[in-house]
Specification:
The chain contains five helices and four strands.
Length: about 100
């Protein structure tokens, strides 16, 4: 992406991003996730390196390669545990 990744942006901000910027990016990412889930996709590996920024700083989500079809993934142990362990939601890593 022209603007790099959220991970790269955070490397340059050791004290974190300004609250307004972080909130705006979070809302954009949430909107993109809602859009995907509304079409039956579960991202499964959302992390700073999969959040891309365009030249205007707008958020784009990448790496849908590990995405799952929501109906197929519902309750499936293997589907629940796919993704980067440090970025999985706690409910996805609880013992089945």
């Amino acid at each position: 992406a022209e603007g790099g990744t959220l991970a790269k942006l955070m490397e340059g901000a050791p004290r974190g991003l300004p609250v307004r910027q972080a909130l705006a990016m979070s809302l954009q990412a949430a909107s993109a996730l809602e859009h995907a889930s509304g079409r039956g996709l579960l991202h499964r590996d959302l992390k700073p390196s999969t959040v891309l920024l365009d030249s205007n700083g707008r958020v784009k989500l990448a790496d849908f390669i590990s995405a799952a079809d929501l109906p197929a993934a519902a309750g499936a142990v293997e589907a629940r545990r796919t993704g980067s362990p440090h970025f999985l939601a706690p409910e996805l890593v609880r013992p089945a």
